[in-house]
Amino acid sequence: MKRKGESSSAKKKVPPAYRKSPVPTDVWTGTVERLAWGGKGVAHGADGRLLLLEAPLALFPGEAVEAKVQWKARHGEGRITRWVSRDSQRVPAGCPVAGTCGGCELWEAGDRAPDLKRQMVADLFHRQLGDAPWTWHPAPPEARRHRIQLHWDGAALGYFRRHSHALVPVSACPAAADVLSEALPRLRDALEGRALPSRPQRWELATGTPAGEVRASDEKGRSWRLEPDGWTRDEGPLTHRLAPGPLQHGPGAFFQVSPPWAARAFGGLLEGWDVRGDVLYDLYGGVGLFSALLGDRYARRVLVESGEEAVAWARRNLAALGLPSECHVADADAWVPEGLGAADDLILLDPPRTGLTAGLCERLQTAGAHTMVLVGCDGAAFCRDLKRLAPAWRVAGLAALDLFPLTSHVEAVALLRR
């Protein structure tokens, strides 16, 4: 019976499409067939549906695993809970929290890690870009992180657990430069003893190049330098002495995770492509790394970066290197006009992880410059942007750089010609 004030439509059943029913979960056992982008293992269900598998440690093709899977209409997504059989080339993890920490997922791969990452990139490029030739640049054994971000919850210091904001306490980090790993207990002790601000927050430990001086920065941008007798307030810059010359930035600012290897990898790639000309448009230019790496191969540089502090450091860095530059504080997406550049110019773009906007890709179709370099730290967004640019630009060079050892992340770089 209809209650007073109730409309007849209120009695109708909710269509199944709008019900918040749980996604069916299944326990699946099978074999990893190949590796896909992001470190995912690829397999197939009994009914032929594609299955993407995620693991807290490295996956090897051919391994038999057990996973908890959520099946969707056309595919399944699963998290591996147990290895039924392990590849004989696995090695013991060199980290006590491997498998729980959310930072590195390629522990136990040992010397095979570069090849496993190459397989992931090959799968992505083949599926998204066809048979375009590309080069793989694996990280050298000495490549380590020069900055790490940690979390302090008021009682413990560490990294977030995978798929969680629960803390995994750490007292060392083998993925980081030795000086940072050794500074972890000193930072924890200072937080416990309230020698540093002890409210729960994110902290960054960073060092320059070569690794030596250690800085700790909090969420407010305040910085402390590690001394033998403790932490001392220090707002001075971090210095990276790289091949093109010294580059500086403020504590807590964005810079390459492994600066010595990144400068060598990017520098060698750009030199091999022999890009040179009149004006370099360094978009999303940060503190000037690419402008410095290209040095005097261009007569002038125009750097565009949204961060005011980063642009201030870019001006200082490029002036110190004797490189004439115009540095603008602006959103590169909004700054780029129709018809940017002339035939001898280079447009270099190093956008955030989300890649280029569709509108910027459209404007770049009209660019007057005949050469472009696109950098991307997310392979899927990078390939999407190359497709968007394809009507006016062809890929003349393609590379993947392993700038993030022990993780499934890579830096993709493309040389484009009109």
UniProtKB/TrEMBL annotation:
<feature type="binding site">
    <location>
        <position position="350"/>
    </location>
    <ligand>
        <name>S-adenosyl-L-methionine</name>
    </ligand>
</feature>
<comment type="similarity">
    <text>Belongs to the class I-like SAM-binding methyltransferase superfamily. RNA M5U methyltransferase family.</text>
</comment>
<feature type="binding site">
    <location>
        <position position="284"/>
    </location>
    <ligand>
        <name>S-adenosyl-L-methionine</name>
    </ligand>
</feature>
<feature type="binding site">
    <location>
        <position position="256"/>
    </location>
    <ligand>
        <name>S-adenosyl-L-methionine</name>
    </ligand>
</feature>
<keyword id="KW-0808">Transferase</keyword>
<dbReference type="InterPro" id="IPR029063">
    <property type="entry name" value="SAM-dependent_MTases_sf"/>
</dbReference>
<dbReference type="GO" id="GO:0008168">
    <property type="term" value="F:methyltransferase activity"/>
</dbReference>
<keyword id="KW-0949">S-adenosyl-L-methionine</keyword>
<feature type="active site" description="Nucleophile">
    <location>
        <position position="377"/>
    </location>
</feature>
<keyword id="KW-0489">Methyltransferase</keyword>
<dbReference type="InterPro" id="IPR012340">
    <property type="entry name" value="NA-bd_OB-fold"/>
</dbReference>
<protein>
    <submittedName>
        <fullName>RNA methyltransferase</fullName>
    </submittedName>
</protein>
<feature type="region of interest" description="Disordered">
    <location>
        <begin position="1"/>
        <end position="22"/>
    </location>
</feature>
<feature type="binding site">
    <location>
        <position position="305"/>
    </location>
    <ligand>
        <name>S-adenosyl-L-methionine</name>
    </ligand>
</feature>
<dbReference type="Pfam" id="PF05958">
    <property type="entry name" value="tRNA_U5-meth_tr"/>
</dbReference>
<dbReference type="InterPro" id="IPR010280">
    <property type="entry name" value="U5_MeTrfase_fam"/>
</dbReference>
<dbReference type="GO" id="GO:0032259">
    <property type="term" value="P:methylation"/>
</dbReference>
